[in-house]
Amino acid sequence: MTRRYTALGFAVLWCTAVLFNACKDKAWDEMYGRPDWLADPIYQQLESRGNFTSFLKVVEKAGYTNTLGKAGYWTLFAPNDEAFRLFLAENQLASVDDIDDVTATAIVKYALAYNAYRSDQLHQYQQPGGAIDRLAYKRKTAYYDFVKPGPSLRYPRIINNNTNLGFYNVGDNNYKHIPFFLKSFMDAQQLTAEDYNAFYPDRPYTGFNVAGAGVVTPDILAENGVIHEVDRVILPLPSIEDYLAANPKYSYFKQLLDELLVRYEGNADITHRFRVLTGQPDSVYTKIYSPDLAFSLNNENHINNTTAGQMEGYALVAPENEALHAYVHGPEGILMHYGSFDRAPTSILVDLINAHMWGQNLWPSKFHTVYNAHQELASFDRSHLVERKLASNGFFYGTNKVQEANVFRTVYSKIYLDPKYLLMNRAVGTAGIRFSMTNPLLNYSVFMMSDTQIRGAGYDFNTNTDAWTYTVNDVVQSGIVPQNRILRILQTAVVQQNITDLSGEGVLQTFNEEYIKYRNNQVFAAGNEDHGTVVTIDSVKTTVNGTVYYTKGILQFTENEIGFHIEKLAAQYPQTYGHFFNFLLNSPSRYNATTKQLNGTSAGVMYTVLAPSNAAIEDAVRRGDLPGDPATGVPNFTPPVGPNADKVSRFLQYHILDGRTVALDNRSDDPMAVATLYKTDLGDPTYITVTKSVGQLSFRDEQGNVTQADAAFSNNLSNRTLIHSINHVLNYRN
Length: 734
Description:
Distance between the termini: 137 Å
Strand content: 15-25%
Structural class: alpha+beta
Number of domains: 4
CATH architecture of the largest domain: Roll
Radius of gyration: 40 Å
CATH superfamily of the largest domain: FAS1 domain
């Protein structure tokens, strides 16, 4: 009896539990079960449509059935059966079964992009701050290249680098990107069908293309992503490096890279993975391009491992062997002085390669608006292109013309490419004027200074201390003073005009705003005049932005003060400069007769001295503007302390322009007010208005009096100063 009740109780409990669980499962399903309206996963969607049978076989061969049949978040560019029919015919394969496992895996993984995007979302650039519309034309796929055969027994296995920084980023598989071309993106970037057809000339641009395929049916929604049906099988695009290596027409360019700008570094992490996966004992090395290059040709990431690859790609323009060899080794080639790159500074090769690199998208229609790694536009046009390829990491162009880098075609090139001018080149770098000298829109004339000439003048560079030196009287100076001296000499040798004829006579303003003179194909600075030397022209070369003069001798600045040169002029031309110098000499408040320094002037500042002639000063004496005999005009150079001495002091100060050197030359300028050394009792500056026209230089004082520089006795060189003779004393009184 007890057993019967026990069995009955158990049965009741069991039924209750079943009913409870049934109710519980129903509630669970209602809350958490798969809703009826949810689309099937990608694999089942493809099955149900019936026109992806070939692709599904490839998916199974690649081992991706579970990936596409279960949870996930993918965008799939799925080729239909017609796409496979064309693929098999093009590759002479009888059936899908003849596609090998490696190719099958590549097809599937490259068709599979991370995250699910409808066609109206693909153009969005995904970044931490939120998506930005109409910027993206690529997505990262599940495909990446792994270990491949190396170049030698020393490096038997290699892997591509995944950064531009000279090291391998462990954990980043260097995934390839797949490109697509949406009308929304193309219109926003002002691109047309011509840009697409440059890479896929046999395929129509439809407004939604994926690589060389057209999209037949977009936006097939699935539980684990979005499917876009395409009409071509898409194999993983080669990288820029792959395209370069595939064509022997560019072998010289590749050779220069591989031999001089590539290194191989052991990769312990990838070696371990490779050995585990294959059972082979080989070590794996990362192929690393020099970080001095704009980018690594084998790097699939743009700006390393970020989402920037969605909207940007690199570009390489590879010149054919014949064009590159002529540019490098021709009679006027960039190696005409060095002979080979291994004897030249590495920077020359780096500059050559970087000139052919663009760190951003270079669409065919944008050659003359997008800048390369040197911030220069293309020197070629589309007529020079012999090949156009869209790569997984950017753009590859083959060309029959070399990109002419500005460092190789401007005045700077004659310094940079010749080992006789290494010190001058170093000085250009120290002075920071290389960028200006390589600008083809700015004109220059350069007077060359060889290493022999620079050392002959006492200057050198100590690579051990990384400092310039200057030796005088067997005493070696080092540091900032020698550096400033050599930079002053350098900048005196660079004129910001293209002077093609030095047979006449005149003055030239140099890069540091000092002046030098030329006469009958000889040039000289103030220091040369002090020493009675000249720089003679030996030969001349022309570049795209100016003229280069090879010289005998070196331009030198003066060590003397301005007063030294005024005194010298007074001795040479007493009727012109005699009175002015005598006023100066006898004004101790304005002039130090021992040091020859004009009080109120400072080292490193530009000045212009306006010295009235003797006749002009005598006229001023007659007017009472300067001390002396008003009847005869004879000046009194030593007036007693008081009003007359003050007149002389103000006169001297007012005739020195402060902070600017103006020349009588062949250039015209608008009138400009220039401050003088004289300041009013209230400390306010006083001004003289300077007007320049070709062959004339005039000065107007604050009373409206105008005087001219006397061409026969003007443009005298001094220490950052020009000294002019004028025919009227200017009135400082307001």
